[in-house]
Amino acid sequence: MTWIDLGDPLPRPSPARYEPTEWDVGLVCPLPPCEQGLSLTLEEVLDARVSQRQFALMNDQQLGDFLWHACRTRGVGASNLGFDLEHRASPSAGAIHPIHIVLKRPGCAEWWLYQPKAHALLELKHAASKLAGLYEHSLKVLEGDDAVRILFLAEPGKTLGKYQDGCSLIWRDAGALLAVMALIATAQGQSFCPLGITGEPWASALADQGKLAGVGLALLGTATGA
User: Fold this and answer.
1) CB 178 within 8 A of CB 99
2) What is the pTM of this model?
3) Residue 17 belongs to a domain
């Protein structure tokens, strides 16, 4: 067995300020406000959760409700790291939340960045060409023609500014977010399936060398027959 030792994360004695990625964006599409809360109990959601591999198309309201519950920013706090700390549904080391959510909707070439503070989708310029290989690669794992493809895109410098040997924290953040998404999809009667691929080597091409890294992919849609 080969085990990759990512080290033991510890807070740095003096945090290093980090300048977050500046995104090259085009259209801004606000998502509709969430219409309703979740009706299932936590026990019902835990008992019902299972990965699904059949997907039907989602409308803006359904996608917006999913992102509202799973990913939106619920509060912010000042920090000395060069960016705000955030409170979201999923836990994150140091309240840093280094995982960005990038979406490709079925039938559309564009990839969109979810902005969790504004609850809006931002068109990522040039992402369609840079992520074309990732899209084709993901189809080989699971076609899901009517699914929304969700790329988990890490910005490691945010976490590494506070923690030495912090790479494992980034992977744990991605796993926590994945779990929250799976539970929210179940609570909303939607189909959700994580893929084993990371998104590399295509995801990191969205920024300068070393600024971004793919840490997962998932498919989301409404349940077939719903």
Assistant:
1) no
2) 0.95
3) no
Residue 114, classed as helix, strand or coil, is strand
Residue 14 lies in a domain: no
Q: CA distances (Å), 100 to each of 93, 149, 205, 215, in order?
A: 15, 13, 15, 10
pLDDT digits (tens, 9 = 90+) for 26-64: 999 999 999 888 989 999 999 999 999 999 999 999 999
Number of domains in the chain: 1
Tokens at 4, concatenated: 């990759």
Q: Which residues are 112's β-sheet partners?
A: 103, 123
Token code pair at residue 143: 């076609």
Residue tagged 């953040």 (tokens): 173
Q: Looking at residue 145, which CATH number applies to its domain?
A: 3.40.109.10
